[in-house]
Amino acid sequence: MKKELISIALFAAMPLCAQETTTMAIHPQDGKQIIYKEIYGQFAEHLGTCIYGGLWVGEDSPIPNTKGYRNDVLQALKNLKVPVLRWPGGCFADEYHWRDGIGPKENRPRLVNNNWGGTIEDNSFGTHEFLNLCEMLGCEPYISGNVGSGTVEEMAKWVEYMTAEQGSPMAKLRKENGREKPWKVKFIGVGNESWGCGGSMRPEYYGDLYRRYSTYCREYNGNHLYKVASGASDYDYNWTEVLMKNVGHRMNGLSLHYYTCSGWSGSKGSAISFTDDDYYWTLGKCLEIEQVIKKHCAIMDKYDPNKQVGLLVDEWGTWWDEEPGTVRGHLYQQNTMRDALVAALSLNVFHKYTDRIRMANIAQIANVLQSMILTKDDKMVLTPTYHVFEMYKIHQDATFLPFELTTAKKAVRDDRVVPLVSATASKDGNGVIHISLANIDLENDQTIEISLDNLKVKGVSGRILTVNHINDHNTFEQPNMVKPETFNGAKVQNGNLKVVLPSKSVVTLTLD
What we know:
8-stranded parallel β-barrel, globular, disordered N terminus
C-alpha cells in the first residue's frame, strides 16, 4: 500500500477560549468527483485600478515591470497558481469594442468608462496585453464578449482574431499587430448580466440572442470553445428555467452571480468597521449561496440530467462601501479576516457541487471588491483572502472526499443559522489528502476530532494565519499583520487527528 501524505488547511484564530468538540469522519475511498481547478478562478475588469496600476503599469513606468506588467503582482499571482482569468468585465464588457484595444497604443481611441466612475479609458491594455498575461501566468483566458452594445459580426471577428491560423483576414490583422501565432482561448462568455447592465433584457429575448451570437463563435484550427451564457443574479430562478428550456445544450455553461452584500441601495457597510452581529450576518449571507446553488442545480437537472451544462459562479465575493477618500465608482475596499472566512466558506460550498460547478471567479483580482492584492504606486500588499486562496490551492484538480461533520450552530440575523465549523476534504493525484476547516466563532475554540477510516499517519506539521481581531487587515504601512506562521496545534492520536482550532484564523497541516 503506497504511503499517503495528508495536508490539512484549517481556519481559526486567537485568543484561546473555552472549547467545544466537533467531529468529522472522512471517507477517502469514496471520493469520485474532481474539484475543478477553475473554481479558483480570478476576475479582472476595467474598473478602478484593477487593470491600470494593479496588473499593468506600462513599459515606461518606474515601477519594476516585465513588458508593462508589474513584477511584484506577477510573482504573487504565479504563487497563487491562478487557473483562469476572466476579462474585460463585468459591466465594462458590454461597452467594450475589442478593435479599440489593438494596434499601436498611440493610435488607440480614448473613451469614458460609463459604468465605473467616468474614468478615461485609454485602451492601452487590450486583447494582446490580456492574452499575453495569461500566457505568462500559465492560466486559461476567459473572454467576456459584448452582446449589450456589440454585434454578432464584432464578436465573431474577435474570436477569429484571437484563434485563427494564417490565411484569414483577422489572422492577417493580428500578425500586423505583432502576433503571428494564434492564442488558445477556451472560455467565451456570450454577454454579461444581460438582465441588467448588459442590456436590461428579458430571459426569452436573451436566450434567442445567445443562440444567434454563439452560432458565429467559430472554432478555428482545433481551438475548442466552451461557450458560456449570461446567467442569473442570485435568486432569479426563472432566468435559469427559461435558458435551460430555450437554449439547453447549445450552451456549454451558464453563469451565476452572487455577492455577499447587504443590498443595492444605501450603505453596504464598512469593510473594516463592523459589529459582531454584522460579522455573523455576513457569514450567514455568504453560506446562503449553497441554497441558491441547489435551486439552480435542480432546475438544470430537470433539463440536463446528465449534467453536461456547467454552472459557472463567475462573479462572487463581498461587496462593502468604498474606502473613504478613494474615487467614487472604483469599488476599492479593504480586506479583513472576515473576508478571508467568506472565501473559505464559499470554496467549501463550491467543492460539494463540482458535479455541476465547473468554474468560479472571485471579484476581483486587484484593488476592487474582495481582491487578492492591493497596490499603491510601487507598493503591494497581499490580502487575507489571498492567503486563503494560496492555502486552498492544494485542492485544485483533486478528488473531493465525502465526509460527515457534526458541529454546533449559531442563529444569526435575518433568520439564518450558521454552523460554527465548515469543512472540506480532497485527495490529489499523488495520494495526498487535504482537509480544510473554518471556525467562525469569535470567542470559542473548537476541538475537532477527525477520523480517517483507519489511514495510518505518523506525524503532523502546519502553518497558521492568525489574527487577534476579526477586522485585522494588511496595509501598505503594515503589510504583514495577517500572514501565515508555523502551527503546532494538531496531533495524531490512534491514527486519527485531534486539532484545537482557535477562533478566526487559518491553518494548513501535513501528515505522514
